[in-house]
Design a protein that fits this description.
The complex is a heterodimer of chains A (about 150) and B (about 45).
Chain A (H helix, E strand, L loop, with lengths): L1 H33 L4 H10 L3 E4 L7 H4 L6 E2 L10 H4 L8 E4 L5 H8 L5 E3 L3 H7 L22
Parallel strand pairs in A: 1-2, 1-3, 3-4
Chain B lengths: L2 H35 L6
Classes of the chains: A alpha/beta (about 150), B mainly alpha (about 45).
């Protein structure tokens, strides 16, 4: 009897611990999503990982076209109806996303949580990015052309 | 049960246990960071 029980006991223990690890991993992902990124962290992240940056500031013709993070996609208020189809196609809900608002508003970030699977907030928003002296771009959004390769900061 | 199989099982269990405790500790730190950053739970 003991011969049978011993491996079963080990297997059950492994299953339980495996489940606990998965649960803790999910909790980690949820917590990380709530942590805002600093402008410097975002800059470093853009250099080594694939994230999309969405600029949720209202009135893109004034805010976005005035200045924005290079590669950011204008997505005012995280409202898919408010952007043209060409931009809608570029915004992928399943890709890790960083939300850029005027001053890193928690409310603006909150609006995007229903749209993106994983959306983090840029602490201090565009204001903090500019104050940090990080690269900025201006002008209308133009989707990257096929085969053009990745952009760089 | 062969000794080598038992050692393997125990090794896996210890590995999972250490991983789980490490994650728990990391998550506790993250929770503290979230609380201090003022983000808190999603609205």
């Amino acid at each position: 009897m003991k011969r049978v029980l011993e491996p079963v006991g080990y297997a059950v223990l492994i299953l339980v611990l495996g489940f606990l690890n998965v649960a803790e991993g999910r909790r980690q992902a949820r917590l990380e999503q709530q942590l805002p990124l600093t402008p410097k962290e975002l800059y470093q992240t853009l250099a080594r990982a694939q994230v999309q940056v969405v600029d949720v500031r209202p009135d893109p013709s004034e805010n976005y076209e005035g200045t924005h993070i290079p590669g950011a996609i204008p997505f005012p208020g995280c409202d898919a109806k408010a952007v043209p189809e060409v931009i809608q196609e570029r915004i992928l809900p399943s890709v890790p996303t960083v939300v850029v608002s005027d001053e890193g508003s928690r409310a603006e970030h909150g609006k995007c949580l229903g749209y993106f699977v994983n959306a983090r907030n840029l602490a201090g928003g565009m204001k903090a990015w500019s104050e940090a002296g990080l690269p900025e771009d201006s002008g209308e959004y133009s989707p990257p052309k096929p085969g053009a390769g990745g952009g760089c900061l | 049960m062969k000794k080598s199989v038992r050692v393997l099982f125990v090794g896996v269990i210890v590995g999972l246990l250490v991983g789980w405790l490490g994650l728990r500790r990391h998550n506790a730190e993250l929770e503290q960071k979230v609380a201090t950053s003022g983000q808190g739970a999603t609205p």
